[in-house]
Every structure is written in structure tokens, then in C-alpha cells.
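As a warm-up, study this chain.
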Amino acid sequence: MSQSKFSNIRNDYKRHSLRRDNLECLPLLQLKKWLEEAVDTEHTEPTAMTLATVDATGQPSQRVVLLKDISDRGLSFFTNFLSKKGQHIDYSPKASVNFFWAMLERQVRLDGIIAKLPVEVSDAYFASRPRESQIGAWASPQSERIQDSAYLDRRFHEYQEKFEGIEVPRPSHWGGYILLPHRIEFWQGRPGRMHDRFVYQLAEEADWDIFRLAP
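Now compare it with the structure written out below.
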């Protein structure tokens, strides 16, 4: 087999290092710190995270969603509850999220359980969205097979007319989820593939066990 043109693509990571005494005591505080640094460096889509779920056959699936909040409980995002990801979450709330900030040579992986956010939280966030995005939540039957883009355009215009002159209400099939993590790994690229990896593992009484992994 001839060598792939992709096989020689590699970078030697040299920007930062990560030490145990640099870590925050709580993993979500450490995540906030790294996220703020990604924002400050003007990283493209710093809140983009890859969400992995699993279907009833055990087939994993992943897609990029946008983080909208970090609380002391977990990470929040919003979507269509009837979408493929929503169906997966209904089947199994176990999920995994991954952030990768190439400019900082950093990655964060979170494993946990997903739950729906309270209705009032979903209502408040939906009300803050641009009007076109609100109408889009009604118009798009997310993850369903459609004939063409003209179908979406027609539905969009129909809902534009339906809600003309009034506030767009949040559809019941659209809202927020929160990922409640029990394991979070922080990865910092280092020269020679000697990367720094630290894991926060949730233990009893909400304490976090922090340990280093080999790269």
C-alpha cells in the first residue's frame, strides 16, 4: 500500500504545559479558565463542542453543538428534542463531549449524563435568540428526510406569516439539555508527544479525584 499524503501531517506541540499545581480544585472551573483563554485568543468557534450519543442498536453518533452555559452542575446546550440526538438521549442519557482548541494545542473530554433543563430556562434562552432562529426552530423538522431546500423555505415563510406582529413562542419540541459530567480530562499538547493529561474523576460526596495519565 502506498503511503497516504495525510500520514506525514503532524505538529510538534510547544505552546504550553500543564502541571498539577496549576489546576483548579473543581474541573468546571478549570474548563471555564481554558474556555476564557480560547475566547481571548480569538479562537474560531471556541464554544463548539463535539457531542457523542448512542442509539438503540449501540451505534455511536456525533455532531458539533454550541455550548451556551457552564454552571457548577454542568454544560448546557439547546436543540430540537425530536432530532436524532434528542432521540438518542431519550434512549440513553449517557453522552460524551469533546472540545479541541488547536491554537492553544488543548483538548477537553467530558463523560456524563444528560438531562433536560427546566422549562423556564429553555423559555428564557429561546426568547433571547434572533427572530429568524426562533422561526427556524418551528420550520425545520430536524434530522428528518426532506425533498429539497424549497420545502424548508416554504415552511419558514409559513411560520413567518403565522407569527407576524407577535412574539414567537418556544415550540414544545425545542429546548435545553445539561451534561452532568462525572469524568473530565484536560489534555495539553507537549513536544515529542509527551502530552500532559489530567483527569478529574467524580468520587463519593461530590469530591473529585485528580490524577495524571500517560500520553
